[in-house]
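Hey, sorry to bother you again with one of my protein questions. A protein chain has come my way and I'm curious about its shape. It would help a lot if you went through both lines with me. I owe you a coffee for this, so here goes:
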Amino acid sequence: MAKENVSDLIAKAKEIRRHIIEMTTIAGSGHPTSSLSSVEIMVALYFRVLRYNPHDPNWEDRDRFILSKGHAAPVLYAVLAEAGYISTEELRTLRKIGSRLQGHPAVELPGIEVATGALGQGLSVANGMALAGKLDGKDYRVYVLLGDGELDEGQIWEAAMSAVKYKLDNLAAIIDYNGLQQTGSIDEVMPLEPLTAKWQAFGWHVLEIDGHDFSQILLALGEAKTTRGQPSVIVAYTIKGKGVSFLENALGWHGKAPNAAQSAQALAELA
């Protein structure tokens, strides 16, 4: 298979990162590092994979996407703006009183399927959407992005069991495995390994990728789409704060926005 040209996606990812830095700096709050780690995943989904219509957000046959790690809302808002759901100017209203861009996604914003941020619930919601699609004879697919720290929630594993029971092969979960939680590393807070073996034991089709490599992301999403009889999970190894030198793999930045000087440095690196 010829290697797919992803130069447009690389350029789009850089623009998304700039939006994330700018909007969180203006807001003075938010979760930039959790957003930066998932940029390539989100860009691949929205600009190469998902079936949607920004002019008809509730189109019945659209693919569904759920940001289960809802605190990473800035990356979703940036992608929705670039995809035509909202204006890029509205990004400047993040977390402002009266803004549609709340700290966690809310359904009054076009393109948001469900309010998220109470961690652990997104996979269960995705299961329901995928099962509804099967019962209704629809061919849409459902994608859900999970945080690695979110996997500490027991509800995730209940949903993992039910997705296999109902053979939800129209469902793909993607894990943003950046290795850091709010208070420390995954290994310090609650070790996840052997993670792939756990999902395999539950009956999922498991793929492992570099979550910043567009070619690997697209190949994995393609394989998930053609897998039959079981749901797929993509374990995407990422870097928290990816793209900004002083944010990469840095503790103490979860829920902290850069100040004006830090923002200027970040934007210069992303120029």
Notes: Residues 7-269 form a domain with the Rossmann fold fold (CATH 3.40.50.970). Residues 40 and 212 are 5 Å apart (CA to CA).
